[in-house]
Amino acid sequence: MKKRKRILLIVIGILVVTVIILSLFANSIAKNKIEGLLKNSIPDHIENSYKSISVNVLGGSISFKELNLLIKAKDTSLVQANIKMESFIVGGLSYWDYLFNDEIHIGKIKFDDLQVIHYKDHKNIPTDSTKKSKAFKLPKPITIGHIILKNSFISVYDSTKDSTLLESKNIDLDIRNILLNENTLSNKIPIEYENLSIKTGTIFYKAGEYENLNIHQIEINNNTISLNEIKIETKYSKTELSKIIIKERDHFDVKIENLKINNFDFGFENDTLFIKSNLISINNPDAAFYRDKLVADDYKIKKLYSKSIRELPINLTIDSVAIINGKVAYSEKAHFENPAGTLNLSNLNGGITNLSNTYASPEKTTINVEGIFMNDTPMKATWSFDVNQTSDAFTFRGHLGKLEASDMNAFITPLINAELEGEILETHFEITGDFNQSIIHLSQNYDNIKLDLLNKKRKKKKALSEIANVFINDDSQVGDDIFHNITANASRDKTKSFFNYLARNLKASLLIMFTKKNKNEKQKTNKRKDRKKD
Fold first, then answer.
1. pTM of the model
2. How far apart are CA 378 and CA 424, in angstroms?
3. Is the pLDDT assigned to residue 522 strictly greater than 50?
4. Which residues 6+ apart lie within 8 Å of 79 measured at CB?
């Protein structure tokens, strides 16, 4: 028995040594084959280099150290992309699946410290359009158990002066159970996967000629996306922007603490991109908009929001949007010598339902919001429209609580050199309209409204102020009715925004409200005196 065991151990040892020697030869042969492919089979416009390559045939793995790829535009010296990585590992290649299941199975692909620099405007020289390239065909279906990117970096440049178009740092990506076959290749998104996780560091994106987008961090876990510390801002100061632009344009600074997209889904239906979510939460948005009215008007026809959503090039289905603790400031400069007038909204909470161009009529998009107007005036508003109505019909209802008229001076004084006094105790209004015309029903309870006209030095023009106040209906009381009710019509200036349309409605109704004298002036005056005595 001892002799047989000894013989068996010798045989096993010889086999192990033989396998090791063969695997070393196989590793060497495979390494030479891969190096030959990299040298002779890669197109001329792609250059590659690496510090070292390691092949383990038995383990089914290939790894590169300090792999670099330089991709040029075809038939030019222009660099399209420069790709570098500290290491690149392909592991867990299954020979069994390749030989017997007719598929290529890879256990893991890992990139460490991947750096991608892409030059967007360095394009290939156009070739003869009559020559059709052969459709790419996979030799076998490919399944990958795991793709990992660690500490990756990407930069995209264009040919403009401020050439950085996109930059993102510290990208970690984890995708599991990936499938690539002839069926997936025929789709717009050529792969299928089961689990996706992405985490990034800071992201910069040049959102346009005048605006930049910065995001501190993005996290994606399957169907949930979270964006933290979003900032969209005009890249120039207010003064610089006014010097650069030839037509009026908002200067803005928008910050959002967190934006979360739940149950996110996207894909293609009949070559049209669709995006879906059941809820988007916007936490602590803080937006400041500034308009310099001294710059020439932009006379381009502006769409209403219903038309903008209806004509999106994608199918959008957002069931709900929640807005939590928001702030909005709008400033407008109308005179060179005056500062801008400012309106403020704070403590904004509300939401949007059916933000979509896929619902059928009579389903409506509805926006509800409540908050504080100016200093401490409670406000509520509801705005609704059906995106399918080509007339762009809408309804906008609003309610304001007690407003000290003097609170409005921060906005109106710089714009019209005037100051208001008195109290607007309560306001209700409803605007119904479409792309062209609207009608407003306004109901207000106000008292002791007074207007003071000012000169350029902000001194009161006594004589003109007295004359102006002769025409002001300073008290809403009419008989026993404490509310003054007005109906007015307004036409839309199609070169202005929807919010300008709202302002035109309010202006038309308030002009009647504050200048329409009551027939029984004596009765009104006596009732006012009686209230003051009380």
1. 0.84
2. 12
3. no
4. 70, 71, 72, 73, 119, 122
